[in-house]
Amino acid sequence: MHKITIIGGGNIGLSLAKGLVKADYCRAQDICITRRSLASLEEEKAAGYQVSENNVEAVTSASYIVLAILPQQVRKVLDEISPSLKPHQIVISVVSGVTCADIKEVIGQDKTVIRVMPNTAIAIGQSMTCIATDKADENQIQAVSHMFETVGAVVVINEDLMTSATALCACGIAFFLRSIRAASQGGVEIGFHAHDALKMAIQTAKGAADLLLQMQSHPESEIDKVTSPKGCTIAGLNEMEHNGFSSAFIKGIKLSAKKAGGLYND
Question: Is 69 annotated as a binding residue?
């Protein structure tokens, strides 16, 4: 059984740890989670996970080392653990805007680095995770892909698209949540109680996504099925488009991608 060390016990780190155990990928005792303050990991410790505030000790026996920290913390953590890393270990970076080259510059060119961009739906095993690398071999990419397939869907992409993946998939969670919130607010305005409107908006959004996933269809073909001539659906869609709905969504994704690319340097 592979040992995994997750440096950073924040939302993504903890969600990954719990997701891997829930999916029977590994046992809780095979995962070590590190954080500067162990007080916030009491629940995980009680559940059987190893916890540590010493990154150097935590990485020594791990097959996989997951960096689930802020871009601004990367250099300090890498400087700290670099002397302890072995060539057979795989470093998995979940850090936005930090390239494989950035990491290897600190830990050495002989190390294997794979970048991974999940989103917060990893907490329920529904992440859209993008994976990229510079020189990892196919077996290593497959091994990491398998790890993250236990907590959602995986796409392997070129590394130069990772900041774009951050915007579309990681930031994208917030964009779709905001659109659901807007739909529920519209529901209140046309007469529903807030809790009913939200439930209706959530289930309708879920139904729309599942339609595309299960039917393997294009959004426009499903839209065509609910837009009749002179009907209420096309009237609503056109009003949204006149007010820049698609344009605003696209611009938001583009700006997030631009911002994601500069996080490490900022």
Answer: yes
243 annotated as a binding-site residue:
no
Burial of residue 58 (CB within 10 Å: 0-12, 13-18, 19+) is buried
pLDDT digits (tens, 9 = 90+) for 83-142: 999 999 999 999 988 999 999 999 999 999 999 999 989 989 999 999 999 989 999 999
Residue 20 has φ and ψ, to the nearest 5°, of -65, -40
Domains and CATH numbers, the chain: 4-157 (3.40.50.720), 166-260 (1.10.3730.10)
DSSP helix/strand/coil, 266: coil
118 in a labelled binding site: no
Is 68 labelled as part of a ligand binding site? Answer: yes
Tens-digit pLDDT profile for residues 24-37: 999 999 999 999 88
Residues 212-247: tens digit of each pLDDT: 999 999 999 999 999 999 999 999 999 999 999 999
197 belongs to an annotated ligand binding site: no
Q: Is 28 helix (H, G, I), strand (E, B) or coil?
A: helix
Q: What is the arrangement of strands in the sheet containing 112-117, beginning at the earlier edge strand?
A: 50-52, 31-34, 4-7, 64-67, 90-93, 112-117, 127-133, 152-156
pLDDT at 265: 54
